[in-house]
Design brief:
The structure holds 2 protein chains of 2 kinds. Chain A is globular and about 65 Å long. Chain A is built from 11 helices and 12 strands. In chain A, the strands form 2 sheets. An 8-stranded mixed β-sheet of chain A has the order 6-7-8-3-9-10-12-11, sandwiched between helices. The two termini of chain A are 34 Å apart. Chain B folds into 2 domains: 87 residues, no CATH class; 205 residues, MetI-like fold (Orthogonal Bundle). In chain B, the strands form 2 sheets. In chain B, strands 1-2-3 form a 3-stranded antiparallel β-sheet, with no helix packed on it. In chain B, helix 5 crosses helix 11, helix 6 packs across helix 8 and helix 7 packs across helix 8. The chains are: A alpha/beta, B mainly alpha. At the A-B interface, helix 2, helix 4 and helix 7 of A face helix 9 of B.
């Protein structure tokens, strides 16, 4: 049984009397010990999908319209509030993009980590355990750091504290929502190494949300590419990087600047991601797709397995 | 790994400075630099200390009447073989008093006098000062229409007038924070309901609301009951506006990532509101609370002035001013306005302090 199985998740945002589909028919599976990357442009539903794993999207304005989220075989969407509190932190923990915003500025970091311990392992809510966790995430001299306020630490250190908080409850799945976007490049590498190392040591699974394809190759076992609320391609990471099948994935990879080439201009995908409620009929990517066919405007493609373990949502996946 | 190898001297100092300063310490340091705020704070400390030790400092009990001396004028302190005041005697044929030439009344310290309970439960008869001679009492601020010592009554009255504000803001902001926090954090129907209720309360002119609320209770309540009633009524009216501001702050705070982070850890809503939303509103609450203390003091004054507050013979600044309603009294015996001066000083001190607090919590400057 996979650790997490999102099946045909559909989520609407209610705006006035309209309901806008933000997540449409998303299915993602994560096995124990696996790292899955969720890739896509801003506003394509990555974060909402990730927050849904612990049903953290506020309802209203959101509304779960359909699908299932099976965590350890139990449907999160049908859980009671008490059960939800148990899995939040207990089974799935989150870290976010901007660590300085994720820490409460008015409390010492030691106390914030202790809060997490109190909830899930109350017998371990001690200074010793906090220090052990800080050591685990590579904070030097943790004994003197537990009395620090968040503003006294650098961004990288703050993100390490966030990771310590997330790990305090010993979760099975760590959801990292663009954990390195707010950090500079050298620190990014350190944090990602730390995540990989901790994953091995603690036997967690990781769901890593990113729009940095460079990270994907280093971290991921499998990749799901999202566009306009849908998964458009899902496949093992290396296969996807070597030979992307969906035109959107190809376009994404073409927009990554390469040191080897002497291009004057970066290639970009023309146009913008359609905003919620303004999705085109048929394939959602066809207005921007370089290989669009007339049929694309009329028929919504389904996610199909075109090669073993490689799922693509494109009418012409095989012919392109 | 992430620290720069050699921080400059000024950086190091700034770091050391930050390292020891919790937000409260920073706040306190900024407050101490604010001259007028500290001045206000000192005045308030003195006022509250004298209120606490009112029985000891006041030479007479608040009920003690001297039927020989109605509307006695204030007696100035002078130095003549020790601290003393001029002796007075009733002028024959009129209700005035005249100084007895050459006679002074020495002030004695730590004399025995009227019974009182220090802090409400330690019975004592020891007073800080007194004349030691019942025929020649010391009325530093004169006496009122019943021959009661205004200075003593002012001190006893401050117990009510000053404490009413403190208890009042605890109630008001306690309620305001809970309701505002819930309203802002949950939003939706709960928010609409609480906010419409606040607006309902705020839309009624305060004085009529006060009077009608007071009228729902029997008229012949004891002063203690009235005291509690005044606090309850004023807080019931006041919490609505505080709740609205706190709700607005909660609305913005709940979108902060640390609130989401707390929820991802599985924190209860109650805990998130108490620990992560409400501390963010303290900067407003501290300032607003300080600035709204005068509202309670004046509220008590208004109610007592209108005759629905504290009842005679108990002392409060409001009931004392009640006597000054009569214009004839006012022109002939202006010392009856002493509680007005006390109110003025107190309100001013609270506003000074509130101003300083506002600057101290304002991190933008």
């Amino acid at each position: 049984m996979p650790l997490l199985e999102i099946k045909n998740l559909k989520l609407d945002f209610i705006a006035g009397d309209k309901s806008l589909r933000a997540v449409d028919d998303v299915s993602i599976t994560i096995n124990a010990g696996e790292t899955v990357c969720l890739v896509g442009e801003s506003g394509c539903g990555k974060s909402v999908t990730a927050l849904s794993i612990a049903r953290l999207v506020p309802t209203p304005p959101a509304r779960y319209v359909g699908g299932e989220i099976l965590l350890n075989g139990r449907d999160v969407l049908k859980m009671s509030k008490t059960d939800l509190r148990g899995i939040r932190g207990g089974v799935v923990s989150y870290i976010f993009q901007d660590p300085s915003a994720s820490l409460n500025p008015v409390f010492r970091i030691g106390n914030q980590i202790k809060e997490s311990l109190k909830l899930h392992r109350p017998e371990k809510a001690t200074d010793e355990e906090v220090i052990r966790l800080l050591k685990l995430v590579g904070i030097p001299a943790p004994e003197s750091r537990i009395k620090d306020y968040p503003h006294q630490m650098s961004g990288g250190m703050q993100q390490r504290v966030m990771i310590a908080m997330a790990l305090a409850s010993e979760p099975k799945l760590l959801v990292a929502d663009e954990p390195t976007t707010a950090l500079d490049v050298t620190i990014q590498a350190q944090i990602l190494d730390l995540l990989l190392d901790l994953k091995k040591r603690m036997g967690m699974s990781i769901l890593l949300i990113t729009h940095n394809l460079g990270i994907v190759g280093d971290m991921a076992d499998r990749v799901a590419v999202m566009y306009a609320g849908q998964v458009v391609e899902m496949s093992p990471a290396l296969d996807l990087l070597r030979r992307p099948l969906h035109p959107y994935t190809k376009a994404l990879m073409n927009s990554v600047p390469k040191l080897s080439s002497n291009l004057q201009r970066l290639s970009a995908i023309p146009g913008n991601v359609p905003t919620l409620g303004n999705f085109p009929s048929g394939c959602r990517f066809y207005p921007r797709c370089p290989s669009a066919q007339p049929e694309c405007a009329n028929t919504m493609p389904q996610l199909v397995e075109v090669e073993p373990n490689r799922w693509v949502r494109c009418l012409y996946a095989k012919s392109l | 790994m992430e620290t720069s190898p050699q921080p400059s001297a000024t950086e190091a100092i700034a770091k050391a400075d930050l390292a020891i300063a919790s937000p409260w310490q920073v706040f306190w340091r900024r407050l101490r630099r604010h001259r007028t705020a500290m001045f206000g704070a000192v005045i308030l400390v003195i006022l509250y200390l004298t209120a606490l030790f009112a029985g000891f400092i006041a030479p007479y009990g608040y009920e003690r009447q001297d039927r020989e001396r109605f509307f006695h004028r204030p007696m100035a302190l002078r130095f003549q073989g020790g601290l003393a005041v001029q002796q007075y005697e009733p002028a024959p044929g009129s209700s005035k008093y005249q100084a007895v030439k050459g006679e002074v009344q020495r002030i004695h310290f730590f004399v025995r006098g009227d019974k009182y309970n220090l802090f409400g439960f330690i019975p004592s008869t020891l007073h800080l000062f007194g004349s030691g001679d019942p025929k020649h009492p010391i009325n530093l601020l004169g006496t009122d229409q019943y021959g009661r010592d205004i200075f003593s009554r002012l001190l006893y009255g401050s117990q009510i007038s000053l404490s009413i504000g403190l208890i009042g803001i605890v109630l008001r902001f306690g309620l305001g924070m809970v309701m505002g926090g819930i309203s802002g954090y949950f939003g939706g129907k709960i928010d609409s309901f609480i906010m419409r209720f606040c607006e309902l309360i705020m839309s009624i002119p305060a004085l009529y609301l006060i009077m009608s609320l007071r009228a729902t209770f029997p008229a012949n309540l004891s002063s203690t009951q009235v005291y509690l009633l005044i606090i309850a009524i004023l807080s019931f009216i006041g919490w609505a506006s505080s709740a609205r501001v706190i709700r607005g702050m909660a609305l913005s705070l709940r979108e902060r990532q640390f609130v989401l982070a707390a929820r991802t850890l599985g924190q209860r809503d109650r805990h998130v509101i108490l620990k992560h939303i409400l501390p963010g509103t303290f900067s407003y609450v501290i300032v607003a609370a300080t600035l709204s203390v005068p509202y309670y003091i004046l509220g008590e004054v208004v109610l007592s002035f209108l005759g629905v507050g504290i009842q005679e013979p108990d002392a409060s600044w409001g009931i004392m001013l009640n006597a000054a309603q009569n214009p004839e009294y006012l022109t002939n015996y202006p010392w009856l306005l002493a509680p007005g001066v006390a109110i003025f000083i107190t309100v001013l001190a609270f506003n000074f302090l509130g101003d300083g607090l506002r600057d101290a919590v304002d991190t933008k400057s």
